[in-house]
Amino acid sequence: MCNTQGDTPIRLKRRPIAQSIENLDQLMNLEKGRMSRDLFWDRDIYEQELERIFARCWLFVGHESQIPKAGDYVSTYLGEDNVLIVRQKDGSVKGFLNTCPHRGNKVCFADLGNARQFVCNYHGWAFGIDGALKGMHASETYEAAGMDKSEHGLHPVAHVDSYRGLIFATLDPEAPSLAEYLGDMRYYLDAVFNMDEGGTEFIGGCVKSVIQCNWKYASENFVGDILHAGWTHDSGAKAMVGGPVAEVHKTPEQSYHVNFNGHGWEFNQDIVGNCATLGEKDLLKYLYVLQPKVAERLGELRSKMIGAISSCTLFPNTSFLPGQNTFRTWHPRGPGQIELHTWTFVNKSAPQEIKDKWRKGTMMTFSPSGVFEMDDGENWEYSTRSNAGFVTRQQDLYLGLGHDTRVEDTDLPGNVFQGQINEANQRAFYQRWLDLMKADSWKTVPQRDVPKMKEGV
Amino acid sequence: MSQPILLLKRADLEPGKVRKCEVGGVALAVYNLNGTFYATQDGCTHATASLSEGDIVDDDCIACPVHDGTFHIPTGQPMSFPCEHPIRTFKVIDEGEDVLVDLDQESDEAADAV
Amino acid sequence: MNAKTALPEIGVDAETQRRVEQFLYREARLLDNERWDDWLALMAEDIHYWMPTMENRRRADKNGTYAVDRGALYNDNLLDLTRRVTRFKQPTAWAEDPATRHAHVVAGIEVYQGEAPGEFIVHSTFVNYRSRVEKDNDLLVGRREDVLRAEGDSFRLARRKIIITQSVLMAKNLNTFL
């Protein structure tokens, strides 16, 4: 796929673009809010997702704060492709497939660390942090064979770029720029990742778990589904704050769904609603003190989003919760499984005790032992698994909430819908999914959304 | 005894750094360890690699840039896998601003080692 | 597992060993039977209940496999534990209804004198098997390092460190204590 890049040699053989599954349009009728269950079960659809979603989109790979020094690396995934994201000596970030070009073994078995080189355990092929093959065990024998080391470096990911500390990578050399890919969603991202001029950092390591569900159930939940919270998470809310989840469906005039290029954010303007569920008053005070300063930096609306009841998914599989400060990627592992990686983000300039409380708060609420997440996994597992039934699988699903809620007369970037109890973002998420699945390259992906923000902002 | 050969000026190599110098047809790795200069062969004894492209670690060892095996710079002794055979050291002579090397003699530390 | 005890390991008499074993076996039974309040009553006021997550790092990496300021599934004080129990007891705790079936198997119990008089350092291994609905079965195996504090004719749990073998938790949630 990256065979035309720079001086990288042409790869010996690559399977031509897989023949697309026919009649993809029949999988959904978004106008009527209907969708097929095949999306969550079919193996062929999954294989096509790996190629047309995960080997094509910009995917989150790490936060700048995780790899501050040259040689710092994290091992992560683009779909099911294991990649190493490595800070270079010149401060830039590169990414490589974590596989030796000799026999294919993993070259790095650690989750993270600092390396001067990556050495394959199998035959001692050794790669610099820039991915170049530097040598191997018994190197004389390769020299005698006339092997050119410059042709056998680690396979690079096509592009790496970052926005507000969040590092993304794509395996597709033809992908649009990250700025274009995120588009107007950057306006809202600033409410969280640029609320403070010092920016954010990840703290407390990564918590990983497996859920036996289709990845899209998790992504679409965070793209727009606050609706489930009042029901699914009643027990968690009572544990943390002693009462039910706020009845956000009663105040739609103060809340929105916004989306762009399949990314989506549902939010209201209560400043601290999400944060309140951590049960730590000091965190509320921190946000209340910060809010007027954010209003000066970013304006009134975004200052009220900094910890409000809200959730966001960046298409396809990265999500976060403002206020609760959990950041997560749902890595696909077949049509019926995900590997969930979660981190805690905080403002870099926040006092240490505030950071510690957020680290603890994400653990108490949105981790596998957290009182909220505890009830999500089972919902998604059985939304997936029930489709094993042949007749069950023929039954449509419904996602028709908020059909006539589009706000046309607004200066807000993106596609704006009134009321956070809505399924507009979910429909936009699946429309983007369908557009990408039908397109044989980035060139034929329709540009439905017109950006209000300039690309270079 | 051969003539010492000029390697470089003291100011040309910062403390904690290593660089490659070719003198008398020999490729050397020259090190500045907190103001004391050392010189060893540049080629690794394990695989084809230039030690001067590696990093100085644990105060006074050079980590090979290929497999990360290490050598003790003052004595040339191998310190960690996969390095097994010592690297050749050379006697460095300080003359004010000049750093010279005697290609016929080992470092003092290597000569003292049993 | 890189759990290390700096203190010298000074053994205890057979009767103390027996009483500590009995305490841990009873604790396991309370958890198997979801007797959450009775279980909470075993905790000291200053309990630190900690279950870090494991990171795969090279042996040479001085940061180690886990640390107190890194990822954790539990890093709790008494209020945190009480909040978790509060959720378990809600009729809307959907992932607990129908009830999860638990088996907490405790073995390899070693008891040593603790730092303060009346405190004991207790090592144990555990196997935790949870079954839900038709065939959701989750297995966790690990090692614990506790500090028990004598109180009356029993003990309170003052500190627990739980080290599991998995780095990626192979389960959708962790709806029990270990």
Largest interface: A-C, 42 and 38 residues
Number of strands of chain B: 9
Structural class of chain B: mainly beta
CATH homologous superfamily name of chain B? Rieske [2Fe-2S] iron-sulphur domain
Shape of chain B: globular
Global Rg of chain B? 13 Å
| Structural domains of chain C: how many | 1
The CATH topology of chain C is given as: Nuclear Transport Factor 2, Chain: A
What share of the residues of chain B lie within helices? under 10%
Major beta-sheet overview of chain B? 6 strands, antiparallel
How does this structure look, described?
- Chain A is of the alpha+beta class and 457 residues long.
- Helix content of chain A is 27%, strand content 23%.
- Chain A folds into two domains: 59-160, Rieske [2Fe-2S] iron-sulphur domain (Rieske Iron-sulfur Protein, 3-layer Sandwich); 184-444, Naphthalene 1,2-dioxygenase Alpha Subunit, Chain A, domain 1 (Alpha-Beta Complex).
- Chain A has 13 helices and 21 strands.
- Chain A has an eight-stranded antiparallel sheet with strand order 13-19-18-17-16-15-14-21, sandwiched between helices.
- In chain A, a hairpin with a 2-residue loop joins strand 14 (256-260) and strand 15 (263-267).
- In chain A, helix 5 crosses helix 13 (424-438).
- Helices cover 4% and strands 41% of the residues of chain B.
- Chain B is built from one helix and nine strands; from the N terminus they run E-E-E-E-E-E-E-E-E-H.
- Chain B has one helix spanning 108-112, and strands at 5-9, 17-23, 26-33, 36-41, 55-57, 61-63, 70-72, 89-95, 98-102.
- In chain B, strands 1-9-8-4-3-2 form a six-stranded antiparallel sheet, with no helix packed on it. A three-stranded antiparallel sheet of chain B has the order 5-6-7, with no helix packed on it.
- The longest helix of chain B is centred in the last third of the chain and has 5 residues, at 108-112.
- The two termini of chain B are 23 Å apart.
- Chain C has helices at 14-32, 36-40, 78-88, and strands at 43-52, 72-76, 101-113, 119-132, 136-151, 154-164, 168-169.
- The two termini of chain C are 17 Å apart.
- Classes of the chains: A alpha+beta (457), B mainly beta (114), C alpha+beta (178).
- At the A-C interface, strand 7, strand 13, helix 7, helix 11 and helix 12 of A face strand 2, helix 3 and strand 7 of C.
- Strand 13 (200-211) of chain A pairs parallel with strand 7 (168-169) of chain C.
